[in-house]
Amino acid sequence: MSKTGYPEEILQSLExxxxxxxxxxxxxxxxxxxxxxxxxxxxxxxxxxxILQGKEIPNGIIADVIIKEGTVHEEPIHLCFGVNKExxxxxxxxxxxxxxxxxxxxxxxxxxxxxxxxxxxxFGHFYIGNNCNFEYSExxxxxxxxGALVAPVAYMYIxxxxxxxxxxxxxxxxxxxxxxxxxxxxMKNSVIKSNIRAFGKSRRDSIRIKDSVFLExxxxxxxxxxxxxxxxxGEVLMFxxxxxxxxxxxxxxxxxxxxxxxxxxxxxRPFIRATDPTCSVSHEASLGRFPQKWLDxxxxxxxxxxxxxxxxxxxxxxxx
Amino acid sequence: MLLELKNVxxxxxxxxxxxxxxxxxxxxxxxxxxxIGPNGSGKSTLAYTIMGLxxxxxxxxxxxxxxxxxxxxxxxxxxxxxxxxxxxxxxRIEGLSVFKYIxxxxxxxxxxxxxxxxxxxxxxxxxxxYMNRKIDETLSGGERKRIxxxxxxxxxxxxxxxxxxxxxxxxxxxxxxxxxxxxIKALDMTILLITHREDIGMVADYxxxxxxxxxxxxxxxxxxxxxxxxxxxxxxxCKRTLYKNGGVCFDNDYIxxxxxEENMS
Lengths: 320, 265
Known about the structure:
The structure holds 2 protein chains of 2 kinds. By secondary structure, chain A is mainly beta. Chain A has 3 helices and 19 strands.
């Protein structure tokens, strides 16, 4: 336990993602915070222009994050949904509203360091107003036993002239069973960047991620980048969808996955659809192993093939 | 000798033809030794084989490094003994920072920062500007090559094999690279320089002429260069270049004699 009463074990995994855990601690840093310890709210800190509210329900919480019109904050809003028990059910219902002309970041962390039969579900709604700059980054850590079942669903509405960046990272620890659905609706002149990264490391790891962008407004633009690796029997399916449904919108989906070790499976399904003759959508996908030359280049510095592969996976999952 | 090649024959991947044919030569410790020859003479194949790349296996012969037979060692084992290689076109591994990339081969993890600083300075890059950059398309070809070289220097290997370090660089940059090679040598490292350009080779103490897979001559570099020019029939170029670079003084009669030997007068 930390001095604040929040189990540090839950936050510890953030360090592997190069995030300073102190930023999440109540009483530290300038950003707003909401911390959930299993199904109990451990702390809420608000800052000017940001309303954070949580209501406990039998298996989790309903959390409201409202960013008032015109609010600009350099410091991210920190949300931590942690469980340090092995089993149980945690259900989160976040409702995130960014009013017009706001510029904020949310750093969310879902950490289940001891998961062994734990279920985490999320059903989130995001409403981002007009002329906003909004970044949502979510990192996950599901322990080392492949013992979590994680199923988040998020619907995101992005208003006119807004820039929205979504980052999802599940690259540390063993994921367990993961099924993620993200639907992003992009209005006129909005820009969407969605980066998904995941790493399945054993036969007990199965990751399925569907990330969809619907370009509904004129000149809306999007890019989805999905990167994954599967090793030692792990399984990853990346399903990247872009639909161009408005004049002059432009979208691209990119899936790249690396398969390592016998029994591992990577699948990529970029799906594009256009219903307006002036829009442009494209995709590319690649599956396979790293080029031998890259391995040689790193091994010539004295690393083994396995070490070189780890470096390359880390690099791939860190790419912008 | 730090490195010795004894009767080395390297076949093509399908083993049906020979790329390098029964060659032998040695590389002296703390020297710059250039392997020079036209395109397609087997220089890069030789470099990859010495490094021990997976696909480059020798058919006959032995590679001796510091008295030890390394013919059957893997690339990693050879690197751990103190051999490394810089590529003609190094990869852009985009998710790695320059700092992380350069530290990959540094054994002593307590000196990472100072070693990276020092290595970047040797290749004339400002550490504070480059340390946190990603190895991506924002780096020019020349910058990428310098970073590759810095990573090799940071390892403090005993032998650096430089495969065509000049390719894709303009003349001013090439001049700078020649100074860098001398700085590397001053750090007690040995350089095996693979090149097809005489101006790059002029920095070398010794050389080996590789011609259609055969090692025709190993000697002081100017003599090797003269032989190369004679084989290629470049008498005027040879006279001009060998006088211009490094103050090497072969008289015209000697040059004519060498060319006659090659029936190139």
